[in-house]
Amino acid sequence: MRKNAIVITSLLLTGSLLLSACANNSNNESSSANNAAAGSNSTNVEATTAPEIVPAGALSEPFTATDLSKLPAVAQKRTDTIIVGLTDPSGAFTPYFQQSGYDGNVSSLLYASLVTVDDKGVPTPELAESWDVSDDQLTYTFHLRKDLKFSDGSPLTADDVAFTWTIQYDKSYDGSSQLPSLNVKGGKAYKEGTSPTVEGIKVIDPQTISATLEQPNATALVQLGSNVLSKAYYGKDYKIGNLEYIKKLHEKPLGDGPYKLEKFIPGQEVRFVANENYFKGKPKTEHFIYKTTEGDVWQFVETGEVDYASFSATDENIEKLKALGFVNIIPYTPSTYGYLQVNLKHEQLKDKLVRQAIVYGLDRQSIYVDAAQGAGSIANIPASPISWSYTEEGINPYKYDPEKAKQLLDEAGWTVGAGGIREKDGKPLSIHYLGSKSKNTDIFIAVAKENFEALGIEFQPEVFADFNSLVSKVEGGDYDLVSFSTSMLTDPSDGFMQFFDGEITDYDNPKFLELYNKALATTDIEARKAVYKELYQLFNDELPIIFTSYKKTVYAYNGRIENLSVSPFIGLAGSLPTWSLK
């Protein structure tokens, strides 16, 4: 299982994959960097549908550092290095084969994409200087820039793109890329071993390649336009049916992005050096470091140990940041949503009435809004308020209503037994909850314990200080609810990825699949909006996951950094190569 959920503790574009780490979804008091794993909108998404960055708390516009002389000496002395905090990655730095979004944040510096998206979510050229889409929306032809190189100086051509696409149709591929779901013509035959190639992939010349799909897919442009792997390096030992060898290359990546991996020291840092062969030119800052040491992010910012961090947009946080004097502050609402993953294998949670009762009986306003000093809002659908597909029409807000929750549990056959705990068929109604260690998890547990006790539900929380331990527990299936937040969502289809990447496997609803595929089958944005409204209403009723919150965030960064900008869809990825220290 590949986890694609994350709190706002990672940073950059990971191509079109929704690769991200899992952690507690509550609004962190502070976190090291903001996740921006992204897909993209369809080829005809118009600028008029672009979301606006929503004011965060008391900050409605960017704030500029007032006194750089207050910058700690350790930060003043850095002349060619920028440091950003990141939760410790696993070391799997090969796109399409990563274990978490934290790995993806590393590879986002090492690899470029054929296509990226601008700050309005519209696809824009990167390694591909242009592309053509056939009238029937089935064939995508990419025209690569000339003289592209990998970081070792070797040429990047259409053969590398073909290799990258092809191995994702290999029967041994078990990564979380959504490209196989595009159904490139001949992909199934290749996977089944009845064809030595993927028929729909055509290398036309060294700078031109096309892919033909079995049916239209609104996400095809950016799915096909993701990161490119070197065939000479990653394909050297490739044999059909065996991709295991690639794991040996994870910690020695060969990319084409703005930086090269210099050194990975688990639990301490990931060091990068500028790539002189980057197609946009060598980045202005020679060295970049992800600081992976655990600690108080506030302290790291105050002491100058890190140059960038994100914080919940509480009035208190904003005033404290302003008082530092040496940081610039940007208000930001990420295109993510928080949710409780539900273990649908467990009998008590298979019943929709029980899931609805949990939502009615959980005081989400107190947990995600009031406790966050307003730096959040309640989520009820799998889309962010800044998405062009967002709607509240026909959506149940599930306002806190313990009596309604009790009524639903009664209807579901759970009656109050000895000790006040509800029972059914001799079994108590119990919820085993998993979360990551944080102040906000503490808040969730305190409120949920009181709420569930009032409903007659036994509540058993378990908290993990280590991310990988949490993942192992989830993968083992020993849980009822676990707190997560999505990575950045660009296309509305991204909001459903956990149902397709192996994370959630027990929601079997033909109507969901019908609507999901219908929304992807057209690039007409108004038609897609109508379908997504139906999908959101379905999920709002069925609750295969329990929606919790949207975050309001502020970025604070060293006032010496110039050219830093933030996209609602790719975060800082687009501007990072141009960062410089004045």
Automatic annotation (TrEMBL):
Transmembrane segments: none
UniProt main location, coarse: membrane
Signal sequence extent: 1-23
UniProt xrefs under InterPro entries: Peptide/Ni-bd, SBP_5, SBP_5_CS, SBP_5_dom
Record has Plastid as a keyword: no
Keywords for this protein: Signal
Pfam family, one: SBP_bac_5
Solute-binding protein family domain boundaries: 123-501
Taxonomic superkingdom: Bacteria
Cell location: Cell membrane
GO-annotated cellular components: ATP-binding cassette (ABC) transporter complex; periplasmic space
CDD domains: PBP2_NikA_DppA_OppA_like (cd00995)
Membrane topology of the entry: Lipid-anchor
A GO biological-process term: peptide transport
GO molecular function: peptide transmembrane transporter activity
Entry annotated with the keyword Chloroplast: no
PANTHER family listed in its UniProt record: OLIGOPEPTIDE-BINDING PROTEIN OPPA (PTHR30290:SF81), PERIPLASMIC BINDING COMPONENT OF ABC TRANSPORTER (PTHR30290)
Family: Belongs to the bacterial solute-binding protein 5 family.
Name used for this protein in its record: ABC transporter substrate-binding protein
Taxonomic source organism: Paenibacillus odorifer
Lineage: Bacteria, Bacillati, Bacillota, Bacilli, Bacillales
